[in-house]
Amino acid sequence: MYIELKGIKKNYGKKQVLTDINLKAASGQCIGILGGNGSGKSTLFSILAGVNKHNGGSFSCDGNELFKNKKLRRDLVGYVPQGTPLFEELSAYDNLLLWYDKKEIEYQLSEGLLGILGLNTFLKTPVSKMSGGMKKRLAIGCSVANSPKILLLDEPSAALDLVCKERIANYLKSFKANGGIILLATHDAGELELCDEIYILKNGILTKFNYDGNVHRLVGSL
Q1: Which of 32, 71, 173, 189 is the most buried (most CB within 10 A)?
Q2: Among the residues of the chain, which ranges form H helices?
Q3: CATH number of the structural domain spanning residue 177
Q4: 79 closest CA partner among 139, 4, 21
Q5: Which structural domain, as residue segments, surrounds residue 195?
Q6: Dihedral of CA 67/169/139/186: which sign?
Q7: Would you say residue 76 lies in a domain?
């Protein structure tokens, strides 16, 4: 399996946010996308997920155009935005019921990702009373309910403690090992270890960066 972003553009009026975005990724790869605040990372991810409209370009998987085939995109793509699009008045469990059936929740809590994320410790807690980290963990759990092959993760470890960051990192390693593709927007140096390739998004242009472990050089390029 492979994905390709080709010539993706986005503008708001006369302001060009994304200019001719091009990228390829294959099964088992994690692609890190870095950029300063306002560089367009979240805009790009929301376009790929179908939340935002684009002004040009294509997004394909194995040659199938996903911008035009919304059902295939829903089947293939899981999206975790920076925010947490959850129902505040519902508990963690009730939010999960919108995505899973009861048997699948039980299985995932005991054997799968929901257990890895530690959601069983706050199943009855209303979202409105959760910490930022709890909301993020729940949002990730909901995003993978369709067993996606492609994950779009926009700052997934923001507001998480070290234990949960490690849990998520372990899951992502497993996801890669099983042939999944990850596009990861991050400011977390620890997450760079997951990445097979790194790109810098700056002035609307996506450029491949030869990362050698020198974080200071990487930061200087943003």
Answers
A1: 32
A2: 41-49, 70-76, 92-97, 102-111, 113-116, 132-143, 162-177, 215-220
A3: 3.40.50.300
A4: 139
A5: 2-85+149-220
A6: negative
A7: yes
pLDDT of residue 212: 63
Tokens standing for residue 6: 């080709």
Question: What is the C-alpha to C-alpha distance for residues 1 and 178, in angstroms, rounded to an integer?
Answer: 12
Rounded to whole angstroms, the Cα distance separating 38 from 35 reads 8
Q: What are phi and psi of 77, to 5 degrees?
A: -110, 130
- Count of domains forming the chain: 1
DSSP codes joined into one string, 113-125: HHHHTTGGGSTTS
Cα separation, 201 vs 206, whole angstroms: 4
In a domain, residue 177? The reply is yes
The string of DSSP letters for 132-183 reads: HHHHHHHHHHHHTTT--SEEEEESTTTT--HHHHHHHHHHHHHHHHTT-EEE
H/E stretch holding 26 reads strand 15-26
Encode the chain (222 residues) as per-residue pLDDT tens digits. Answer: 999 999 999 999 889 999 989 999 999 999 999 988 888 999 999 999 999 999 999 999 999 999 999 999 999 999 988 877 899 999 999 999 999 999 999 999 998 889 988 899 999 999 999 988 889 889 989 988 888 999 999 988 776 788 878 888 888 898 999 999 999 998 777 788 889 999 999 999 999 988 766 666 776 666
